[in-house]
UniProtKB/TrEMBL annotation:
Pfam families: FG-GAP, FG-GAP_3. Residues 336-353 have a biased composition (Low complexity). This is VCBS repeat-containing protein. The lineage of its organism: Eukaryota, Haptista, Haptophyta, Prymnesiophyceae, Prymnesiales. It comes from Chrysochromulina tobinii. The keyword Signal applies. Keywords: Signal. Residues 330-359 are annotated as: Disordered. PANTHER family: ATP_GTP-BINDING PROTEIN, SENSOR KINASE-RELATED.
Length: 359
């Protein structure tokens, strides 16, 4: 991908220009972050340099923050984090500085945590408390909630209804202290903090998805550490996690974890973006077990995601790579699967991009 050889810490896909296909967002650390506009079929002739993208972006996301019907871009920076308001067609003339912007923000996400119909912003910070910024409408954030639960050591933040009560809880993937789920009591208050199994392992990435198909959301932890495998924590209901599954290929320093139905069989597979061995797709056998592991041929990945960028009906894999040279660009791996996915979820010597097919 163009612009992807500049320490891409975060990669995402969204239709920011409103033309019906998915564009690629690159959150770069050592050069401006970018939006690569998809011309169709997964080609990206137009690269938009984002304002505020030279501030050390660690996380990038897209969401309609101002409620005008197009997707804005969120930048989680080491410095001032920002929302870039989309004026339509993928132009971003307005940059909103987010409160708490002098923090080391490792992760940014958007979710309606207070249930008022607009999207709030979640900041996963290091060395200062992580925050929820409540949207008052139109992309203004007068209210900032500091999160409990060792939230000053957060690498990854996400929102999902893990206890099944209809509001969005907050997930914290922490460095050092245990990762946690903060249960939402309604209105964006979080009186209950659940310590996740896995103790003091270093979680660089956290996500939620129903990997065992029982109707509730399980928690995925991408663990960084040569002796600590990444894990799926199966939800027994109401946000309890008695079962922890160690993932194959997850002891290779996982920076990023995600879930998506890449083989089109109706269940959610797990994607691991690794740094010390090849990144992988772990195919779900249908019950939250992963007997088949597909190596992706890349071992310098900081961010992994899945999206149908070529418009052929299956989910491709996006890799944000972190080596600052042309030998390790960020990539889209087109999916050569013959069946279409039914669902997907979505919070570092590289070969050329290769087709992704079932092993």
């Amino acid at each position: 991908l163009p612009g992807g050889s500049a320490y891409t810490y975060s990669i995402a896909a969204a239709d920011v220009d409103g033309d019906g296909d998915l564009d690629v967002l690159l959150g770069n650390a050592n050069s401006p972050s970018r939006v690569l506009l998809n011309a169709g079929g997964g080609t990206f002739p137009t690269s938009i340099e984002l304002p505020g993208g030279s501030a050390g972006t660690r996380s990038i996301a897209a969401a309609d923050i101002d409620g005008d019907g197009d997707l804005d871009v969120l930048l989680g920076n080491y410095g001032i984090s920002r929302v870039l308001l989309n004026a339509g067609g993928g132009s971003f003339p307005t940059s909103i500085e987010l409160p708490g912007g002098s923090a080391y923000t490792n992760s940014i996400a958007a979710a309606d945590v207070d249930g008022d119909g607009d999207l709030d912003v979640l900041l996963g910070n290091y060395l200062s408390p992580s925050q929820v910024l409540l949207n008052a409408g139109g992309g203004s954030f007068p209210t900032s909630i500091e999160l409990p639960g060792d939230s000053a050591y957060t690498n990854s933040i996400a929102a999902a209804d893990v206890d099944g009560d209809g509001d969005l809880d907050v997930l914290l993937g922490n460095y050092g202290p245990p990762s946690r789920v903060l249960l939402n009591a309604g209105g964006g208050s979080f009186p209950t903090s659940i310590e996740l199994p896995g103790g003091y392992a270093t979680a660089f990435s956290i996500a939620a998805a129903d990997v065992d198909g029982d109707g509730d959301l399980d928690v995925l932890l991408g663990i960084y550490g040569s002796n600590s495998p990444s894990r799926v924590l199966l939800n027994a209901g109401r946000g309890t996690f008695p079962t922890s599954i160690a993932l194959p290929g997850g002891s290779a320093s996982t920076y990023s974890i995600a879930a998506a139905d890449v083989d089109g069989d109706g269940d959610l597979d797990v994607l691991l973006g690794n740094s010390l061995s090849q990144s992988r797709v772990l195919l779900n056998a249908g019950d939250g077990t992963f007997p088949t592991s597909i190596e992706l041929g890349i071992a310098s990945t900081y961010s992994i995601a899945a999206a149908d960028v070529d418009g052929d009906g299956d989910l491709d894999v996006l890799l944000g790579n972190y080596l600052d040279n042309d030998a390790s660009p960020s990539l889209v791996l087109p999916n050569a699967a013959t069946t279409s996915p039914t669902s997907a979820t979505s919070a570092r010597s590289t070969p050329s991009a290769m087709p992704l097919a079932r092993a």
